[in-house]
Amino acid sequence: MSKTHKPLILIVEDEPELAKLVSLYLEEAGMRTQVCNRGQSAVRFLKANFANLLLLDITLPDRSGFELLSDLRRENMQIPVIFLTGNSIEDSKVRGLELGGDDYITKPFSYPELVSRIRAVLRRSEGSSDLALTRNVSVADEPFQFCRATINPQRLEVTMPDGNVAKIGRKEIGIMFYLNKHEGEVITRKALIHAVWGQHANVRSRSLDQYIVKVRDFCRACLNGLEALRTVHGVGYMFDPEGKNPDIA
Question: Would you state the pLDDT for residue 4?
Fold first, then answer.
C-alpha cells in the first residue's frame, strides 16, 4: 500500500466491538476507516463523501447488506464492496457477487486475510475504474460543436473542421461536453472527474492528465495551434477557445 495514499474503508457492521477491532486493524495496516452501524447512515455518508471500498455486513438492523448494495447501485455509487458474512451457504455468497459485490469473507476471519482481500480488490478497482462511464457523466446524446469540430456521441465520431471523420473515446467526449458547458469558467480537477467518471469514481490523477493531453492536442489541431484548454495552476483548467483570457497559462 502506498505510504502517501491511505484508502478510506467504510465499515458497515452492526456489532460495535467487531467494527472497532476491524477499524483498528485496518488503520494499523495503513488505511483510514469510517464505521457505520446501520445501512441508512452508510448511504448518507457515501452521498457526501468518497470512500475507496465498502466492507459490508450482510445482516444489518435496518436492511440487509444485499438490499443496501442494490440501493447503492441504483444510486450509481460504483464503490467496490467486500461482504462480511456469518453465512457459509454458497447461495448467499453467489447472490452477493451477482449483485455487484467484489468479494466476500466469512466470519470468523483472520485480520491478515481481510487486509489481503481488501488490497486485492483495491488493486483491481484502480485498474478498472477508469473504464467505467457512470450514468451521471456530462455527455450529450445529440451532436455538439467543440473547437469548430462536430462531436457525435452516439457514433463516437468527430467530424474535423476539414471534413475528415475520426473515432473518439467516450471519456474525451465527456470532457469536451463538460468544457463546453463551462466555457470561460475555472474548472477544478475534482469537478471534471466527478462530471465524467462519476461522484464515487476512484480515478488516478495521471489518468485524467492523459485525457487532458489528448483533448488539448485535439483543440490545437482544430484551432490552428491556439491554446484553447489552459491550465489554472493549483486549481484545474479553463476552456477558452476564443482566447479571451490571455493571462491564464
Answer: 42
pLDDT < 70 positions in the chain: 1-5, 76, 87-100, 126-141, 199-206, 243-249
Distance CA 100, CA 226 (A): 45
- Helix locations, 88-159, DSSP H: 90-98, 111-128
Of residues 47, 53, 61, 45, the one with CA closest to residue 22: 53
Q: Mind listing the domains of the chain with CATH numbers? A: 8-131 (3.40.50.2300), 144-239 (1.10.10.10)
Q: What gap in Å lies between CA 149 and CA 158, rounded to an integer?
A: 7
How many Cβ atoms are within 10 Å of 205's Cβ, its own excluded? 9
Residue 95 has a pLDDT of: 62
For residue 178, the model assigns a pLDDT of 92
Say how far apart CA 107 and CA 83 lie, in whole Å.
Answer: 10
Distance CA 248, CA 227 (A): 10
Contact between residue 125 and residue 202 where contact means Cβ atoms under 8 Å apart = yes
By C-alpha distance, which of 48, 214, 245, 30 is closest to 122? 30
The answer, as to whether pTM is greater than 0.70, is: no
Within the chain, strands assigned E span: 8-12, 32-36, 53-57, 81-85, 103-106, 144-146, 149-152, 157-159, 165-167, 186-188, 229-232, 236-239
Contact between residue 119 and residue 113 where contact means Cβ atoms under 8 Å apart: no
